């Protein structure tokens, strides 16, 4: 992460229902106190403190303490924070959950594959007194993606993310910039999230200096129904926000389309020629959803 400071521009996620408004989700390692202190100035919609992949085994206990302290401090500053704990089967999971701050907006469980894992996480959260805290599911293994439709139906799941890097590691494949190797899994996960009506965040771009790739992936993800994208560098925050925010031209066109379509519908027509395109109910639904998102 860079050391520059920028004006704070963020959407504060205050409850699980607002996770659908998180366009930029900025990840920071729990063991980097210097990174955590700068998070409020980064402009992300949601802050994501990582105690899992970004923390070596020898530093897990330290990460747990730093995450709890940072979550409380950031919450007092009006920031929304989720914390990624270690996997349910790991030796650190129980302590991670027990050590969570009550200020956390959600707990991220990585590599979820079974309903039993979600039940175990639910029980651990309840024992810790965090009965109102929802789970963000990490869908990043072959089984997790394959079972996503069922996993995301669980009542405790409030959001999910698709993890391409871990998926390819699990598959034994090769990660490429084209994303061809994860195209079907990325689409399947989006379908599962839509069926469950849960917000879904897109994969990280580890090549954090490649802004063109990040913007391209973010646009692809929005077109597929994802609501936001995981960011591993502050420079990616603005790119994510821009990609997942409808442009003025899109909004204006949606309003014109609906006005024309509703006028035609009132006259008994189910399809119209709108600015050179055939428009019927499916396109009207898309326009309504775009305008609903802008209003939200």
Structural key phrases:
single chain; 296 residues; TIM Barrel; 2 domains; eight-stranded parallel beta barrel; two-stranded antiparallel sheet; 10 strands; disordered N terminus
Write the layout of secondary structure elements.
Blueprint (H helix, E strand, L loop, with lengths): L23 E6 L3 H6 L7 E5 L9 H17 L4 E4 L8 H6 L7 E4 L5 H13 L6 E6 L2 H5 L1 H4 L5 E6 L1 H8 L11 H14 L3 E3 L8 H14 L3 E4 L3 H9 L4 H19 L5 E3 L2 E3 L1 H15 L1
Parallel strand pairs: 1-2, 1-8, 2-3, 3-4, 4-5, 5-6, 6-7, 7-8
Antiparallel strand pairs: 9-10
Helix pairs in contact: 9-10, 11-12
Question: What's this model, at a glance?
Answer:
The chain is built from twelve helices and ten strands. It has helices at residues 33-38, 60-76, 93-98, 115-127, 142-146, 148-151, 164-171, 183-196, 211-224, 235-243, 248-266, 281-295; strands at 24-29, 46-50, 81-84, 106-109, 134-139, 157-162, 200-202, 228-231, 272-274, 277-279.
| Spatial order of the strands forming the largest sheet | 1-2-3-4-5-6-7-8
Number of helical stretches of at least 4 residues: 12
Question: Structural class from helices and strands?
Answer: alpha/beta
Q: Can you identify the CATH superfamily of the largest domain?
A: Phosphoenolpyruvate-binding domains
User: In this structure, how is the largest beta sheet organized?
Assistant: 8 strands, parallel, barrel
What's the rounded overall pLDDT mean? 92
**Which range does the strand content fall in?**
5-15%
Low-confidence stretches: 1-12
> Mind telling me the C-alpha Rg?
20 Å
- Topology order in helix (H) and strand (E) letters: EHEHEHEHEHHEHHEHEHHEEH
Query: CATH top level of the largest domain?
Result: Alpha Beta
CATH architecture of the largest domain: Alpha-Beta Barrel
Number of strand segments = 10
